UniProtKB/TrEMBL annotation:
<protein>
    <submittedName>
        <fullName>Glycosyltransferase family 1 protein</fullName>
    </submittedName>
</protein>
<dbReference type="Pfam" id="PF13439">
    <property type="entry name" value="Glyco_transf_4"/>
</dbReference>
<dbReference type="Pfam" id="PF13692">
    <property type="entry name" value="Glyco_trans_1_4"/>
</dbReference>
<dbReference type="InterPro" id="IPR028098">
    <property type="entry name" value="Glyco_trans_4-like_N"/>
</dbReference>
<feature type="domain" description="Glycosyltransferase subfamily 4-like N-terminal">
    <location>
        <begin position="39"/>
        <end position="210"/>
    </location>
</feature>
<dbReference type="InterPro" id="IPR050194">
    <property type="entry name" value="Glycosyltransferase_grp1"/>
</dbReference>
Length: 417
């Protein structure tokens, strides 16, 4: 070791190997009922955040339901985390998605043996509720995400009478947490009006290197039946009632009346696929895509149509923008937060279907405006860096840890019920 009086010349001889290894900053337990290779916004964004937390030298313990073996990728494709797999059940109508089962006793035992600094819960299902109970039993600080508008799905699945009880459960769940992260300021205001407390806005990032206009493939477009100058409209996401896909069909029909060679592409899968195929027999159904293949599908589109009104954010919006697609959407979620209508996309008032269709027609008829909007959308998306999002996420965790009271007494030894 060098002394405090070492000369500058002597200091040059100090080797990096003599310095202490970087320590892990925090021990984090992250609980989620969906994770890659499942394909949805929650799964993909949680994987990004966990990767970012790893890069910031945190120890991450990931608790999630065990997925079917046909979905499990090689371990080399995952972030280096300590995975704890629980029992899982298929989600109705979505057999490729899993939900956890009540696991409070197991989680209390797990966290008693290896106590985390904070527990973060990404989903509010049975596993998430068990994690909340276990964390509070052990007096651990808890943060959560509000990521899915379950209560808004009721009208699409004939569950209208359950909307209020579901909202009541969600409010109870999140208000028992030390902090809840929401993706947009508009969502924060909406939830405050509904009685939610301790909300922090933490947005979503996008991989602007993967989702890039240079991935456009004329060969792929030809396979869709589109020539170099033909307009291709598309949608990416679940093919499900809550996505409001009838508006996509109506907008496409309006465009096709003006441009008969226009093509429509659906990327994704879900319970509405057969119905959509019957209503739009000439549409291309590309199925579920991921990684660079998904990026190429985005880049092949000229107009991205996203009519959903049930999103908390909508990662597909930013992925389309990063891919150089001109986006038409309702003034809601990520689109409402990021798009200036006529500048880097087109917005219609929430639920104003006639305006959505009119915006789509206007975009279809003006190639120069479409190109300018697409370039501006790409510029906007490039500012949404995941490292910034991870830093905001980390700050909320640190705040919850700092506010937590010291654990005194034998609370952690109480019987598990």
């Amino acid at each position: 070791m060098k002394t405090a009086t070492a000369t500058a010349a002597e200091a040059d001889d100090i080797l990096v190997d003599d310095l202490p290894a970087p320590r892990h900053s925090r021990r984090l337990a992250v609980v989620t009922e969906t994770y890659p290779p499942e394909v949805n916004g929650v799964a993909m964004s949680m994987a990004r955040v966990i990767d970012g937390l790893n890069r910031r030298n945190h120890d991450v313990q990931l608790i999630r339901p065990r997925q079917p073996s046909r979905l499990t990728p090689p371990s080399s494709g995952r972030p280096a985390v300590d995975e704890v797999l629980t029992k899982g059940l298929a989600v109705p109508l979505y057999p490729n998605l899993r939900m956890g089962v009540p696991s409070k006793r197991s989680l209390v035992k797990l966290w008693s043996l290896r106590r985390p600094d904070v527990v973060h819960i990404a989903t509010e299902g049975p596993l998430g509720w068990s994690a909340l109970q276990a964390a509070q039993h052990l007096a651990l600080p808890v943060t959560s995400d509000y990521r899915t508008n379950f209560h808004a799905y009721g009208r699409h699945y004939r569950l209208g009478l359950l909307a209020k009880p579901i909202m009541g459960y969600l409010r109870k769940f999140h208000n028992r947490c030390d902090a809840t992260m929401v993706p947009t300021e508009a969502m924060r205001v909406q939830l405050v009006e509904r009685g939610f407390e301790r909300l922090s806005v933490v947005g979503r990032g996008v991989d602007a290197q993967r989702f890039d206009p240079t991935r456009r493939s004329e060969a792929m477009r030809m396979a869709w039946g589109a020539g170099a100058d033909d307009l291709v409209l598309g949608y990416v996401g679940r093919l499900a009632p809550e996505k409001n896909l009838g508006v996509v069909l109506a907008a496409f029909e309006a465009v096709k009346a003006l441009q008969p060679r226009a093509r429509l592409v659906f990327v994704g899968d879900g319970p509405m696929r057969a119905e959509l195929a019957a209503r739009a027999p000439d549409a291309v159904f590309a199925g579920q895509r991921s990684g660079d293949d998904l990026a190429a599908h985005y880049a092949g589109l000229d107009l991205f149509l996203f009519p959903s009104l049930t999103e908390t954010f909508g990662n597909v919006t930013t992925e389309a923008m990063a891919s150089g697609c001109a986006v038409v959407a309702f003034d809601s979620a990520a689109a409402g937060e990021l798009i200036r209508s006529g500048v880097n996309g087109w917005l219609a008032g929430a639920g104003q279907e006639a305006d959505f269709i009119a915006a789509t027609r206007a975009a279809a008829l003006d190639p120069s405006a479409r190109r300018a909007v697409a370039e501006a959308a790409r510029t906007t998306a490039r500012r949404l860096d995941w490292s910034d999002i991870t830093a905001r996420f980390e700050a909320v965790l640190e705040g919850a840890i700092a506010r937590a009271e010291p654990v005194i007494g034998l609370r952690g030894l109480q019987p598990v019920v």
